[in-house]
């Protein structure tokens, strides 16, 4: 069970389907959009580290849009490729790392201990969540369970940046990162327990 209902995710993906088909018709590839999304996210993370939340928010929203569109474009093209799946997964991990490093840097430079340690915890636990799924699937066990998959954690982080932009204070962003750290840790535990139970049977 996820904090983001499957119906909401399906609705969001469906709403982007016409745009994805249009991009496919003019020759835009899913891999190009994946790469663009990665570059946008790294740029947004850099702006975040420089304490420029408004600019970071705009760029991160564009990156999130690209991150969602690439899969839709792949479907419009008749299905994804192995290279596309590899690039998507790899750039997702690198994007998450860039965001975590930016938040930790911001916490260190501003003297915000909650933000610094929460960012490190979110970075470690957030990396464990997809690793557990990949390792479990290599052993023949589905492990897409958990309260907070990647898209849920990204929504919370972006909302935290939006709150920082609106209020001018860093505290709400730090709270959002702390929530993500907690949820990522909980999801990691849920997946470990799920896989351990499956492998015992």
Topology:
Layout: H1 6-25, H2 30-49, H3 53-76, H4 82-110, H5 113-138, H6 150-167, H7 171-200
Helix pairs in contact: 1-3, 2-3, 2-4, 3-6, 4-5, 5-7, 6-7
Oligomer: single chain
CATH architecture: Up-down Bundle
Number of helical stretches of at least 4 residues = 7
Mean pLDDT score = 90
Q: Roughly how much helix do the residues carry, as a percent range? A: over 70%
User: CATH topology, what is it called?
Assistant: Four Helix Bundle (Hemerythrin (Met), subunit A)
Q: What would you give as the CATH superfamily?
A: CDP-alcohol phosphotransferase transmembrane (TM) domain
Q: What number of structural domains do the residues give?
A: 1
**How many β strands by DSSP?**
0
Instruction: Give me the Rg, rounded.
Output: 17 Å
């Amino acid at each position: 069970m996820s904090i983001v209902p499957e119906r909401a995710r399906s609705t969001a993906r469906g709403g982007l389907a016409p745009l994805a088909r249009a991009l496919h018709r003019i020759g835009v590839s899913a891999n190009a959009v994946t790469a663009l999304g990665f570059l946008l996210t790294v740029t947004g993370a850099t702006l975040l580290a420089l304490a420029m939340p408004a600019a970071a928010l705009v760029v991160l929203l564009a990156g999130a849009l690209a991150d969602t569109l690439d899969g839709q474009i792949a479907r419009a093209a008749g299905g994804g490729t192995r290279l596309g799946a590899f690039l998507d997964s790899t750039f997702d991990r690198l994007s998450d790392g860039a965001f975590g490093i930016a938040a930790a840097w911001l916490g260190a430079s501003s003297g915000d201990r909650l933000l610094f340690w929460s960012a490190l915890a979110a970075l470690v636990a957030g990396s464990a969540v997809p690793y557990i799924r990949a390792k479990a699937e290599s052993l023949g066990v589905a492990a897409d369970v958990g309260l907070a998959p990647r898209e849920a954690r990204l929504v919370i982080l972006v909302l935290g940046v939006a709150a920082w932009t609106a209020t001018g204070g860093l505290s709400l962003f730090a709270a959002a990162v702390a929530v993500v750290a907690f949820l990522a840790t909980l999801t990691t535990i849920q997946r470990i327990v799920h896989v351990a139970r499956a492998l015992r049977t």
